[in-house]
Design a protein that fits this description.
- This protein has 2 domains: 30 residues, no CATH class; 114 residues, Lipocalin.
- The chain is built from 3 helices and 8 strands.
- Strands 1-2-3-4-5-6-7-8 form an 8-stranded antiparallel β-barrel.
- Strand 4 and strand 5 form a beta hairpin.
Length: 176
């Protein structure tokens, strides 16, 4: 029992240890990873999302339809994307635009009408939209559909798969 308590205290202390000030002069705008997270990345237990390209196809099928997000590379370090979330026969959300990375986040800027911008969580295997999105994003959806809380697991990590993705009408989801 004492050994377990000692190990727990050591792990807790490792998580609370301050960041080493001598980081080689690198400047980062990302929040520093905890000691436990850095150890997990170093051991390979979890991927380092900052090193995994978001290019590819993210898709989830469910009883009400299919949610799909494709991401393709563009010039200037940004990405093009297309998104469709289907909630049955009528309600759906769809849009396209440009995305850029900010650490473990993807900033999705939709084209058209109101300026809808969504900051999504990206962990290398999945893109998750927040539980609350800007009111400007309501124009992307028909009926009672909403992009709030929609997540997209990765099914392919290449631009060719993203370019082959189709929306429910058969049109390309991502266009170069």
């Amino acid at each position: 029992m004492r050994l377990t308590s000692l190990l727990f205290c050591l792990m807790l202390a490792a998580c609370q240890r301050p960041q080493d000030p001598d980081d080689g002069g690198a400047v980062s705008h990302d929040p520093p990873a905890s000691g436990l997270e850095r150890a997990a990345i170093a051991s390979g237990a979890i991927p380092d999302a900052s090193r995994i390209s978001p290019v590819g196809l993210f898709q989830r099928r469910h009883e009400a339809g299919r949610d799909a997000l494709c991401i393709i590379p563009t010039q200037g370090g940004q990405f093009g994307f297309g998104l469709e979330a289907v909630f049955g026969e009528q309600p759906n959300c769809r849009g396209h635009g440009v995305a850029r990375r900010a650490g473990d986040k993807l900033i999705l800027s939709f084209r058209g009408g109101d300026r809808c911008i969504i900051v999504a969580q990206y962990d290398g295997d999945r893109i998750a939209l927040p539980g609350v999105v800007d009111m400007a994003c309501a124009d992307l959806c028909d009926g009672r559909g909403s992009l709030e809380g929609v997540s997209f697991p990765r099914i392919a990590g290449d631009a060719a798969s993203a370019l082959r993705a189709r929306d429910r009408d058969g049109d390309p989801l991502c266009a170069p």
